[in-house]
Amino acid sequence: MKIVKEAAGGERAAVSAQDLELIGALARKPLEQKEVYTFSVRLCDNEIDRDFERFTVPTLERLAPMFVGKAGIFDHQWSARGQAARIYKTELVREPERLTRAGDGYCWLKGYAYMVRTEGNRELIAEIEGGIKKEVSVGCAVEHAVCSVCGRDRSQADCGHEKGLEYEGRLCWADLEGAVDAYEFSFVAVPAQPAAGVVKGACFGSAARLEEEAALGRKYLENLRGEVVRLALLADRELDGRAMKSLADKLSHRELEELRKSYARRAGERFPLKTQLSYENRRAGDEENRAFLV
After folding, report:
1. How far, in Å, CA of 196 to CA of 7, rounded?
2. What is d(CA 115, CA 72) in angstroms, rounded to the nearest whole number?
3. Please, what's the largest Cα pairwise distance for the chain?
């Protein structure tokens, strides 16, 4: 599951001898302090964002080494010409005195990036220094999006809980777990959010398209739940319709499909279909009535 998160960043960072050594490991030749420009970026954190998702601390810990060596580009346009910077080290910053909406200590992943000073990037460096270029967005992949209410993996099946709603006083969000890879960080024009600066953008389509697809998915699940209830009542007349509907509303897509197949088979056994066509035992005398046969 690929995700994109935007955050605040763009602070100038001092260059130490150790930094030059780390940068030299990524460059083809050793670079001197005067040849490089370094700055820091806030890559991502463990706060619940506006789409009610968040990175867990173990995920941030796994992402930290994955971002080392990754390029900085513009607006997630992956091309060699668009590479402007590269991350040479990361640091997990913990602020335990500050609590997230989930109730745990705030934690964020800080990246240190470098650029080689050239005539071509002089303007970009000036924009970073002047605070014009400070919003960045990261692209990475995680394995799971775990529901905070029921603990199910939302990336595998719909658990029935809607992010952003409360269930018995508990807010529903998705924990992003199991970091797989880090792709890049990108300079973007999206304004940073206060403090955490985390904003989520989907990388596979526009917001309108995503909303349309989500609406189709909800409609499909609604129809599937209705079909399961209908087949269940056909298969067993003693079932309570309201109870069956309440049960169907809580089931995931995969569970609904399994029930649909099971009840369809049982309903078919109870009400076998009879064919309207007959090809056997046709008498010769029936030929004159063939115009009236279906």
Report:
1. 7
2. 10
3. 106
CA distance 191 to 245: 44
Tokens of 191: 């304004």
Ranges of H-type helices in the chain = 17-26, 57-67, 122-129, 207-235, 241-250, 253-270
Is this structure's pTM higher than 0.70? no
pLDDT exceeds cutoff 80 at 70: yes
Listed in sequence order, the residues at least 6 apart from 1 whose beta carbon sits closer than 8 Å to its beta carbon are 141, 142, 143, 144, 145, 155
Contacts of 45 (CB under 8 A, 6+ apart): 7, 54, 55, 60, 106, 107, 108, 109, 196, 198
Which phi and psi angles does 231 have, rounded to 5°? Answer: -65, -35
Q: What token pair was written down for 114?
A: 């470098």
Q: Residue 138 corresponds to which amino acid?
A: V
Tens of pLDDT along 11-36? 555 678 888 889 888 887 888 888 88
| Tokens found for residue 14 | 């001092």
Helices 253-270, 207-235: axis angle to 10 degrees equals 30
pLDDT in tens, 89-102: 999 999 999 999 99
Q: How many angstroms from the chain centroid is the CA of residue 5?
A: 10
- Tokens describing residue 256: 């609904």
C-alpha triplet 208, 211, 214: angle, nearest 5°:
150
Q: Report the distance separating Cα 150 and Cα 138, nearest Å.
A: 28
